[in-house]
Specification:
The complex is a heterodimer of chains A (458) and B (193).
Chain A: H1 7-15, H2 18-40, H3 45-61, H4 63-76, E1 80-84, H5 87-101, E2 105-108, H6 112-116, H7 119-125, E3 129-132, H8 135-142, H9 159-170, H10 179-196, E4 199-202, E5 206-208, E6 213-218, H11 222-227, E7 232-238, E8 242-243, H12 248-260, E9 268-272, E10 280-286, H13 290-294, H14 310-314, H15 316-321, H16 332-342, H17 359-363, H18 370-384, H19 389-402, H20 405-421, H21 424-427, H22 448-456
Parallel strand pairs in A: 1-10, 2-3, 2-4, 4-7, 5-8, 7-10
Antiparallel strand pairs in A: 5-6, 6-9
Chain B: H1 3-15, H2 34-44, E1 48-51, H3 55-65, E2 71-74, E3 97-103, E4 106-108, E5 113-117, H4 118-121, H5 126-129, E6 132-138, E7 142-143, H6 146-152, E8 160-164, E9 169-170, E10 178-179, E11 187-192
Parallel strand pairs in B: 1-11, 2-3, 3-6, 4-7, 6-11
Antiparallel strand pairs in B: 4-5, 5-8, 9-10
The chains are: A alpha/beta (458), B alpha/beta (193).
């Protein structure tokens, strides 16, 4: 298996195209600004965040009882509930259902969980035609890519590139890049898929324990177009997606879309409680590492996430390095605290892909202490994981110097003198990662200590 | 019998923190002008809301905007279309509906979300498959915010129910807002006494 590149290495690749990286940065920041405008219109915004966080605290502390209640009520509603301890079991459940109904084509609306489980590849390898129906997801599916953002999957692509993809796959005019024209082409193409599909797969935004139903949010209406025309609806849900009571949705729905894109709500918020008459509704409850994360006291709060993507839009590192540099289903700050729990070795560089500025924590609608968890993962990784030898050596050296005041003064003096006379190539080289894309600050003539001694006398 | 379920429940029991209390539902009284706010909200979602007109206005709107050879489906008493849903057992037959006229159950003014329970739409697919959507909403069914909505609505009553807050839309191509992704290309709400 190919080793996963470090975040820094992958980001470097993205940053080669300077114009694109600036464009990406600006686009995401614009979404973040819309979130601010929208949140600031709600005087009770902070109370909503607190309430949502407390509801999720309760869910995490009572998840077994709530899941059992949810299963019982859903079953009474006529939903067939299946359990999957990992991605493999989740995929096998779906395969079994498809085999039972002898269906080869299916439509799917956006579900980060099925991305996490690698469902598309699993089914495609077995000869199934899986059609992602969210426009952004269809684009990247044509392009053999995975989402680079959990809410805006094709945010890394420009309309010109999408025009080329559609020209190749949908026969749109060569060079055409008008978003309205391209969207219309996708509409016509996907309508046919909706009409033909007998099985529709969706994700789940919220499962309601009290009523045994679930909620799916979209702007395009693609989840509904799929499920209401198909004979079989399979909904895939992470076990942490529960709310105890239907009325909790009042809080979560006010937060979700505003945090995601600045909209007051998604245009469609669908509540599924029973299958259509004579049709079948399956719900798969997936663990896949979530119960392990629940057991990690410092990191369990990450399971409160409602997948709004606000932390990505605000993150200075995400905006400048794009989702792919994280090599993880969920990228950005939240992905960097979730993914190390799934595979610490593979994702060991992600918690370092942050300035720890804390903006992610500030915008999180359920108040996850993301930047604190990033810092805590760094400690775990440095203790047990493979930290770069150069960094380890530098830290040990730095720690030694800083613990001895006399040595610190001496080294400071040496550094100030040597840096001011060193040739450029001696300072800016491959050993100095810090100096790669920026200049070191100007070297002061004296240390603060020296300056203070001199000036205090006056 | 279900070993994965047992494994998951056992793991949760072992790993979960001590029980934390479930907070009360918050209440935030809504004080803006309901009609004006509804109109402002739906505009932001890509739809439109008209006021001060009766059912006749909807009938003329249909006549002015849709050619007579197009399928018009009305589920609102007093407004006539040319397509009868009673004879349609399979939602695939709704594929060519040009415009559907529905009555909303409740409307939330902070975001223009209109509650459509299954019994008001007959086929779940209808509000999505129609090319255009017209929704009649009584002014006394307007609510301030989502907290009020979930107090009023029993979401588990119908097998399916949906908050529709505007036409089908997407911004997946360079963040350009396009109305009419898969579902309705327009949505007009008539607010009535």
């Amino acid at each position: 298996m190919k080793a996963t590149p470090t975040h820094a290495a992958a980001a470097e690749n993205f940053l080669k195209d300077e114009e694109r990286s600036h464009w990406h940065d600006d686009t995401l920041w614009h979404v973040r600004s819309k979130r601010d405008t929208s949140a600031q219109k709600i005087p009770e915004w902070e109370q909503l965040r607190t309430n949502a966080s407390q509801v999720k605290d309760h869910v995490l502390s009572n998840m077994d009882q709530l899941l059992l209640q949810f299963e019982k009520n859903a079953t009474e509603n006529g939903i067939e509930v299946l359990w999957a301890k990992d991605a493999e079991e989740h995929n096998q459940h779906i395969l079994r259902i498809l085999e039972e109904y002898q269906v080869k084509n299916l439509v799917k609306s956006k579900s980060i969980l099925t991305e996490e489980c690698g469902l598309n590849h699993f089914l495609e390898d077995k000869g199934y035609d899986v059609v992602d129906t969210d426009l952004g997801e269809r684009i990247i599916q044509f392009n053999n890519q995975v989402p680079s953002h959990i809410v805006m999957p094709a945010i890394h692509l420009k309309k010109k590139e999408i025009g080329e993809i559609f020209h190749k796959h949908l026969g749109t005019y060569e060079g055409a890049d008008d978003p309205a024209y391209l969207t219309e082409a996708a509409r016509q193409h996907l309508r046919q898929k909706f009409i033909q599909a007998r099985v529709a797969i969706t994700g789940v935004n919220f499962g309601i324990a009290e009523t045994g139903g679930f909620v799916v949010c979209t702007n395009e209406g693609n989840a509904d177009m799929g499920t209401h025309l198909a004979d079989v609806h399979i909904a895939c849900m992470g076990i942490e997606k529960l709310v105890p009571r239907a009325a909790d949705l009042g809080v979560f729905l006010r937060l979700l879309a505003r945090s995601a894109t600045g909209q007051s709500i998604t245009n469609y918020t669908s509540h599924f409680h029973r299958p259509r008459k004579g049709k079948k509704l399956y719900l798969i409850l997936v663990d896949n590492g979530r119960t392990d994360q629940l057991g990690r006291e410092d990191f369990r709060n990450s399971l409160k996430c409602i997948r709004c993507g606000a932390c990505m839009n605000t993150c200075p590192i995400y905006r400048r390095s794009s989702g792919f540099s994280y090599n993880s289903t969920v990228p950005g700050p939240i992905g960097s605290i979730l993914s190390p729990g799934m595979d610490l070795k593979k994702h060991s560089t992600l918690p370092f892909a942050s300035t720890l500025c804390g903006s992610c924590t500030d915008v999180c609608p359920v108040k996850i202490n993301i930047h604190e968890q990033l810092y805590k993962w760094r400690q775990v990784i440095t203790k047990e994981g493979p930290s770069q030898p150069s960094k380890k050596w530098a830290m040990r050296f730095g720690g030694n110097v800083m613990s001895k005041p006399k040595l610190f003064d001496l080294m400071g003096n040496l550094a100030r003198k040597s840096l001011s006379i060193s040739p450029r190539g001696f300072v800016y080289n491959s050993f100095n990662a810090w100096g790669k894309h920026r200049e070191l600050p100007e070297v002061p003539k004296e240390s603060f200590k020296e300056w203070y001694r001199k000036n205090r006398k006056q | 019998m279900n070993s994965s379920k047992d494994a998951i429940i056992t793991a949760i029991k072992k790993n979960k923190p001590d029980l934390l209390p479930l907070p009360e539902h918050p209440e935030f009284p809504y004080e803006n002008n309901l009609i004006e706010q509804f109109q402002a909200s739906i505009k932001l979602n890509g739809g439109a809301a008209r006021t001060g007109e009766g059912k006749m206005a909807i009938q003329s709107y249909l006549k002015e905007n849709f050619a007579p050879d197009k399928q018009v489906l009305s589920l609102v008493e007093g407004i006539t279309g040319n397509f009868e849903i009673k004879n349609v057992p399979d939602p695939h037959e709704l594929e060519h509906i040009e415009v559907a006229v529905l009555e909303g159950d409740w409307g939330v003014v902070e975001n223009a979300a209109i509650w459509l329970p299954e019994e008001k739409i007959v086929h779940r697919a209808l509000p999505f498959i129609a090319q255009h959507l017209i929704v009649l909403l009584k002014i006394d069914r307007l609510l301030g915010n989502m907290h009020e909505a979930y107090q009023k609505i029993n979401v588990a009553g119908p097998g399916y129910g949906v908050f529709v807050a505007g036409p089908s839309k997407t911004a997946d191509i360079e963040q350009s807002l396009i109305i009419g992704a898969h579902g309705p290309r327009s949505m007009v709400v008539f607010l009535m006494e």
